[in-house]
């Protein structure tokens, strides 16, 4: 059986997901899309050579009898409404990060899903599907480096636009680390502090860049994450785990090595789409397979909520300059891993 998908939001990642669902992955096809810019949606479908119904309102996609499951790839403020509507319609929904704009919004989704009685939501955290992060997690869980004590991480983008603000470094950028580091360490955050080094001259008035986010986890692991979104040299994700018996590091993406003009070189990536392109494929294939098997196993609404609780504490810490608690409620049995 082919799973019939409806996609809400046909912008950058919406088009990427439509392309991969129809042209790369197995067992699903996009039959309906919506975007407030219907002309843009039609043009995107034409470019991708895909025949699907175009709606203006995302609720029409959700409620279409032709649609078995929904992908929400519209702007952040719309995620909560469409995810709640999909739950109300009893349809599985893959929602891009962030699940909602606040922890309270994520909690409403968690509560609706628990009330429904069965998992319907997967959040678009793709890093747990990245081969490098998976290998790193295996080294940790196999006990190869002993118990993790410290993590040194970095999330660097080449540059960002004028509309990117200091808080977006948390809600838009760090949100991936907030999820993947919980998954990697199987731990929750206890407290957080944000410190601001000297700001780069490549930034603008509304953005303090770089930032360093310092966490303590419930088990006492110390984590530092550098967010540097105008680093100039490329798109670079780093994660080093220091354990009791050794150190494990996220592998670099494979790149051709060159020897030229008395220099040894490896090209670096500049675009996030390329860095995690395989992870997006694996993530969405898993969603399709799980929906067909009747049980979702990927990043849950609870994971979306947990990342959002931590993000809210980070935002508080950005403003206070002090150490802020991360008040994470205990996980309901419904979301037992
Ligand atoms: N997982 C990841 O790595 C990743 C990467 C990029 C983006 N994202 C997330 O995906 C979402 C989209 O990002 P993008 O870069 O594609 O943005 P974008 O601006 O390119 O596209 C968003 C699209 O949503 C449409 N839209 C807005 N409101 C809508 C509504 N009510 N109904 C239907 N369509 C609506 C816009 O017209 C636009 O075409 C964001 O929430 C972003 O955080 C996740």
TrEMBL record:
Pfam families: GFO_IDH_MocA, GFO_IDH_MocA_C. It catalyses: myo-inositol + NAD(+) = scyllo-inosose + NADH + H(+). Residues 4-125 form the Gfo/Idh/MocA-like oxidoreductase N-terminal domain. Its EC number is 1.1.1.18. Keywords: NAD, Oxidoreductase. The keyword Oxidoreductase applies. One of its GO terms (molecular function) is nucleotide binding. Belongs to the Gfo/Idh/MocA family. This is Inositol 2-dehydrogenase. It comes from Pantoea wallisii.
